[in-house]
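Can't attach files on this board, so I'm pasting raw text. These are the components:
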Amino acid sequence: MQNFGYLFAAYSIIFAVIFFYVMFIWRRQAGLEAEVRAIEARLKELGQSSPAAPANSSRAGQ
Amino acid sequence: MAASSSRGSAVNPSGAKKARGVPALAPWLGVATLALMVASLFMVFEYVPTEAEQGIVQRIFYFHVPCAWVAFAAFGLVAISGAFYLWLGDQIWDDLGYASAEIGMVFCTLVLITGSLWAKPIWGAWWTWDSRLTTTFILWLLYGGYLMLRAMADDTPEVARFGAVVGIVAALDVPVIIVSVRLWRTIHPAVLVTRQGGHGLEDPRMVATLLVATVAFTVMFAWLLMLRFAQLRLRTRMKELRRQLALAEASAGDL
Amino acid sequence: MRAMGAFAAILRKDLRLELRSGQSTVALFALSLLILVVLVFTLSPDPANRAEASAGALWVAMVFAGMLGATRALLAENENGCMRALATSPIDPAMLYAAKLAAAFIFMTVAEGAAVILVVLFFNLEFGPELLRLAPPVVLGTLGFSALATLLAAISGRTRAGDLLLPLLAVPMFVPALIAGVKASAAALSGAELSAMTRWLGVLVAFDVLFVTLGGLLFEHVIGED
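---
Top answer:
Structure tokens for the assembled complex are below.
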């Protein structure tokens, strides 16, 4: 079992890094979804008071 | 182009619900990743025989190589989506390229770390300026530069074009880097290219383990890419919604 | 023909500005001088492997002076809106790129020539025919660097902290030319066979062809307006 430390370290680091990356995605996702929901609710509110909501879709690449 | 036009009906609640959140396939890919990872770990630690010369540290190899494969595939995808972005101008390609660069960077970092942990007991040094190590490290620097560009600049179409250009140039630079660095020096074991020096995979169980681990990492790459890509799509949508909200608020203020 | 006319006009403009002020070349030379001074103090003044040390010093000076020069040139262009005006003009972006590349290449080559003289003085080399053999790697490397820097500075010049971003992007991309250039220069200075240089010169030529082509093709996307 010589050099077991290196082997253990390698596999732990792989899983730790991937775990933290998934957590990073996860936490952002919750924030983003909440924000999108808030904006949509606000848009709906505005849309009811004034039905002339602009519906021009954007081409983000231009 | 078709994908962006469907986003126009943002106020439609049913359409909005569908566009939000993670794709339906993502949890299944997550489960598949987990199952394949457990299988790979079993094979690496129980099934595969210990390599005679290097001992148990050689087992790092079974996850090290798939990490490298995912990193290279991800960086290739950055260039491809960059080319499509410049060609079609649809934000969807930029989101794909950005997500791919980030994931590639995660795995490229893992390649360098696991390689280092293998090199210390085998070569006696954490790092040597061997050709593959050097090439991988330069790749890491290249895409680090790409991510710095994205981090330092705003999310405008202009910066998306810059990202596409850098992604394409970086990928096409890679062959020249490989040639020049190889001429410069080489001591990395040529595992898959030639089988000299006892570094080949003599046992078929070793090949099987490497294959299963590679499949596991490929599925994990697909899973992570799907998650991050969907997130960047959502962010793009949010920017569009913000714009609409600003317009709607302005017109409501006028009334 | 009209494209060539545009190329010549832009290049002439840049050269005339440079002849009047001498800013870019002087700045490049001054920076090279300082970098070489720093290197003389950090390396030993009379190293055993003199050819390699002096070749290395020359290329370090080239890369870092060139980086700052490129940033400065593009910041100046952006400041007075010249690049924006050129981008909206009907000039072929590839021609615009070629003109900018040519200007950068000329300024850098002049500064490089001066830097070579400094290296000879600082590292106790001889003024002899082997210095002429230094020309191919240095000229090819300068061309590759100008091609890369002209493309990337157009990007970094339009982002925040662009002066930091340019080296972050350019240095890793320049690595193959750097390796080949230093090796070929060291071979030239140590008076080795010409065959020792050829494969490195091959790498440099490949690098130059790749980046000049890519720059010409992609410059349009870098300077384009939204």
